[in-house]
């Protein structure tokens, strides 16, 4: 089964630590980005028939959690076992984005 393209979020990392005004308008993005109450970007998707808004850091955290789950399964580790990893941060990120 294929997923609706409106729910395929790409480049969430590029929105980390930016205000809505600082996020470039990307006409090729299949999802909508709106401004949150505090000026942060919110990505809009439909999840199980319900419209939801997510902050970029929530989307990145979900991606990392999924990658962790896949790695634990491949390595035969329990989900309770801690998993060590290195996450690279782009050199172009400012201090706020690094946090």
From TrEMBL:
This protein's superkingdom?
Answer: Eukaryota
A Pfam match: HSP70
- Write the record's keywords in alphabetical order, separated by commas: ATP-binding, Nucleotide-binding
- Any idea which GO molecular function terms this record carries? ATP binding; ATP-dependent protein folding chaperone
Q: Report the InterPro entries cross-referenced here.
A: ATPase_NBD, Hsp_70_fam
Which protein, by its recorded name, is this? Uncharacterized protein
